[in-house]
Design goal:
By secondary structure, the protein is an alpha+beta fold. It has helices spanning 3-14, 86-100, 124-139, 146-161, 168-175, 214-232, 247-252, 259-284, 287-303, 310-321, 347-362; strands at residues 20-31, 41-57, 62-67, 72-77, 108-114, 180-185, 191-195, 200-206, 326-330, 337-343, 367-371, 378-380.
Length: 382
């Protein structure tokens, strides 16, 4: 993002320089899919693509924000929050959640833009929420507490916008660390930055495929996981989520579950184990092992959880054929993106070559970009 362009747009609109620029990143999940709503483990990283806001405080409690991406301006009073439509809902929702938590907010005016692809499963919505939260905390002289702000942004999305999401997207956008993935225990919200190997790069591969089943299938998978817990509790009365079940316990009691429910549970239980194994591999600098775990994750998502697609499977296949250490779908599935791990010197050529072949075989445009791990929400220097 060209912050000079953003500052110039602010100057054109408000005839003054901004007092600050804030940013909050999108995210890609390296491993740990569909585990967050089972109190499990995830390992995302903050993208070097973000949502940015150039702003200055106002002396009142009004907010005026212009989006360069949507070419729209919103104006509202912090004493009269009422919009739950479009991108304004995310802005007002954050204001609502902060005020519900007892924070006294000050108004501000700003210009917003982003380079997180919208609708690609890279959490442009969470990036927007955390950028707005960072703007409010800055102008209102509030301390920045990443975990609390992530929880309030999640509350905004759940209760104001009406999207039932887990905590991962907001927490990585708030607490990401440059050069690191972030191990998150979604039960305790404990986080641990894990250094990423300098000899490797991650390439995001966008399928350009519609995610028509994502919403209904997501809700169905959540219900199936809850069903698995209820049936396993007859043998394991101490469990409350699939987080509490080990692979050995699941195998010992698999006869309690119908075949489909067993496969759903097997994905979650083994995926948690793969996240922990991935953390160990990263600490040892073992990129080959991490690649193996990513491939195993994709196979589990494809075969046991059944949330992959022809397009995502093809992207993984093409990445591996091009020499990647590993690849997998990332996000909820049924379209969206895959993530691949490759040698740093091969990353640009792999990104171009995989997408060209993908386009030739599917007719879908798709796109790819090489990314590195960035910091979470920050106030930037002008």
């Amino acid at each position: 993002m060209n912050t000079h362009r953003l500052a110039t747009a602010f100057l054109d609109r408000f005839q003054a320089q901004p007092a600050a620029i804030v940013r909050a990143p999108g995210r890609v999940n390296l491993i740990g899919e569909h585990t967050d709503y089972n109190d499990g483990f995830v390992l995302p990283m903050a993208l070097d693509r973000a949502v940015w806001i150039a702003l200055r405080p106002r002396p009142d409690r009004w907010v005026q924000l212009h989006s360069l991406d949507f070419d729209q301006t919103i104006v509202f009073s912090l004493d009269d929050l009422n919009s739950r439509d479009g991108w304004e809902a995310y802005v007002q929702g954050v204001a609502w959640a902060l005020q519900e938590a007892g924070y006294r907010l000050r108004g501000w005016e700003g210009v917003m833009a982003g380079d997180v692809p919208i609708g690609a499963g890279l959490s442009s919505s969470a990036a927007t929420e955390l950028a707005v939260a960072r703007a409010f905390t800055h102008v209102s002289d509030m301390a920045w507490h990443p975990t609390e702000m992530a929880q309030l942004a999640q509350k905004a999305e759940n209760q104001w916008v009406g999207v039932h999401c887990g905590i991962m997207d907001q927490l990585i956008a708030a607490a990401g660390v440059a050069g690191h993935a972030l191990f998150i225990d979604t039960r305790t919200l404990a986080t641990d930055p894990i250094p990423l190997p300098k000899q490797a790069r991650f390439v995001v591969l966008y399928s350009d495929a519609p995610r028509t089943l994502a919403g209904s299938a997501y809700n169905q998978r959540r219900a199936e996981c809850e069903d698995a817990v209820r049936q396993l509790q007859s043998a394991l009365p101490g469990i409350t989520t699939l987080r509490d079940v080990s692979p050995e316990q699941l195998e010992a009691h698999r006869d309690l579950l119908p075949p489909v429910i067993y496969r759903r549970a097997r994905h979650v239980v083994t995926e948690n184990a793969r996240v922990l194994a991935s953390v160990r591999a990263l600490r040892l600098g073992d990129v080959s092992r991490l690649g193996e775990l990513m491939l195993a994750s994709h196979a589990s998502l494809r075969d046991d959880y059944e949330v992959s697609s022809r397009e995502l499977d093809l992207l993984v296949e093409l990445a591996m054929a091009a020499g990647a250490w590993g690849a997998r779908l990332t996000g909820a599935g049924f379209g969206g993106c895959a993530i691949t791990l490759c040698r740093a010197e091969d990353a640009d050529a792999m990104a171009q070559g995989v997408i060209e072949e993908y386009n030739r075989r599917t007719g879908r445009a798709g796109y790819a970009f090489v990314t590195s791990a960035a910091d979470g929400a920050r106030v930037m220097g002008l």
